[in-house]
Amino acid sequence: LNERIVVENPDDEFGHMARVLNGLLARLGESFEKLQHFTSDVSHELRTPLASIRSVGEVGLQEEHSAERYRDIIGSMLEEVARLTGMIDTLLTIAQADSGEVDLHRTTFVFAELVQESVTVVSVLAEDKKQNILVTGESELEISADRGFLRMAVINLLDNAVKYSPPESTIRVTLRDHKDTEGTAESVAVAIEDEGPGIPEDKRERVFDRFYRVDEGRTRDVGGAGLGLAIAKWAVEAHGGTITLKPRAPRGAIFSVEIPVR
Ligand code: ADP
Asked: Quick one: 260 exposed, middle or buried, by C-beta within 10 A (0-12, 13-18, 19+)?
């Protein structure tokens, strides 16, 4: 795919055609390279939990253990299985999204209720870290959207805020309705602010890429696959919405989502 068509006279019709074709070839080459990276990243990511299931299983078989120890072993194997399942589900959704096969199952619901429900889902993790999730702002608008996909997007953002910010910190969730000058509903918005390390400016674009992690060391302990933001961005954009990232002063990140009412 690195072949290029060479012509003698770039100004005649053949020269023009060759330029068009070379442009196409270059784009095809890029897509092909991305696909290759994606495939090797996927294989790598799937191997990590598999390797850990295997080694935990081997430890279990090496000698006799107490019943309690066996329970721990099975528990950690099941945790890895859950991680693997989650990753495969996400990958399937991404693959469907790529091929344009995903239908949005739109229903009408109050966006603020979905956000509140997502906060409840992550609050168990936040409590473990003694973090406080504070929901403020006014929002009453209904939207017509795919509830499952948007819920996944909001949960991913909240989950990151919890994972990457320190114990006993506060996560602020702010809701807002946008209306035009005549008061007609336009969009709903939610901002999620944390007091974590934030994301360096030169990495802010890339955090939305698949498998991208800002700092392998930092994220390895919390065990992310680098897919959460990619899938959140896809889900938001599939609704014609936007997802943005801004730094927070003095530290932390602010992820904002805005979804048009229809
Ligand atoms: P992961 O599964 O690794 O969390 P994501 O796609 O959700 O993957 O996020 C990509 C990377 O962006 C993370 O690995 C992390 O380095 C960084 N990141 C995401 N959210 C935050 C946040 N709230 N604060 C700091 N870094 C973050």
From this structure: middle
